[in-house]
From TrEMBL:
Any GO molecular function: cobalamin binding
SUPFAM superfamilies assigned: Cobalamin (vitamin B12)-binding domain, Putative DNA-binding domain
Pfam family, one: B12-binding_2
Transcription regulation is among the record's keywords: yes
Protein name (Swiss-Prot/TrEMBL): MerR family transcriptional regulator
Organism this protein belongs to: Hymenobacter elongatus
HTH merR-type domain sequence ranges: 1-72
Entry keyword Transcription: yes
Key words of the record: DNA-binding, Repressor, Transcription, Transcription regulation
Amino acid sequence: MGQFSISDLENISGIKAHTIRMWEQRYSILQPVRTHTNIRTYSDDDLRRLLNVATLCGQGHRISKVARLSEQELGAAVIACHTDPHDYARQVNTLLAATLEMDEPQLNTLLNSAIKQLGFEEAIMQVGYPFLQRIGILWQAGSMNPAQEHLVTNLIRQKIIAATDTLTPVLPSKSRRWVLFLPEGELHELALLFMNYALRARAYHVLYLGQNMPQQELQAVCKVYQPHTVCTVLTAVPERSQVQAYINELAERCVGSTLVLYGSLMAAQDLVLPASVSNPRLMTDFLSFIETVSPSQKE
C-alpha cells in the first residue's frame, strides 16, 4: 500500500494542499494515519477517493454533497459526468482512479471514449501521455505495483497497434521511407509505436523493426531498404556512459540517412551530435519535425 504525503497528493491530483486539508478537516473525505514523528500519510484508497472527488468538483458539484457519497456512488457519478472531451485533467484523474482499482473495463471505456471524441492522435497526446506521466510519478513513489503498470502500458499498446492497422498502407517507392527500431536490450516500446502510427497516418512508409534490434544488422537493412530516416528511442539502453559511442556508431552504419534519436537518455546529458542527427526532446517536437516535410518530398 502506498504512503503519500500531502505534497504527493497535490502533485498527483492537481488539487492544492490547503484545499486537500480543508476537505479532510471539514468533510472527512480522507483518512490519513500519522507516523511516529506525527506526520500525516495517505493511502492508495485516499488517493483514489481524492481523484474521484476532484473529478466531480471540477464538474461543478459541491464538495459538501460529493463528500456524502459512498464509494460506489462516487464511482458511478464519475462515469456519468464523463462528457467534456477537452477536460483533459479530469480524464487523467479518472484513468488513475481506475488503474488503482485494476478496473480494466473502466480503463478501456475511458480510453475508447477519449479516442472517439478527440481522434486517436489527439487522445494520446492530450490524455494518454499525461496519464502515463502520472503513472511514472506513482511508480517512483512506490505506489504503483508492476501489475497496475503493465495493465496500463499493455492496454495503450493494444490501442496504438489497433489504430495503426486501420491506416491505408503506402508503397515504399511512393513515399519517404523510415526505419524504426529499439536498441538491443531496450523494451520500452510505447513511444516508438506511437511514432509508427504518426508517420503512417501522414503517408510515410515505415519499416518497423521493433524491440531488441542489434545495431550491427542496421547496415544491411539500410543497404536494402535505403531509408531517408532512421529513428530509435533511448530510454534504458545503452548505458549512460556509452550513449555517445552508440550514436557515433549508428551514424557510421546509416550513412546517407537522417537519424532521429529520442528518449530520456538523449536529454539527460551533454552530447556531441553528428550533423545527420536530429534530437526532438518532446513528442510534440517529433510531430512538428515530421510535418516539415512537404507532400512533394514524400512522393
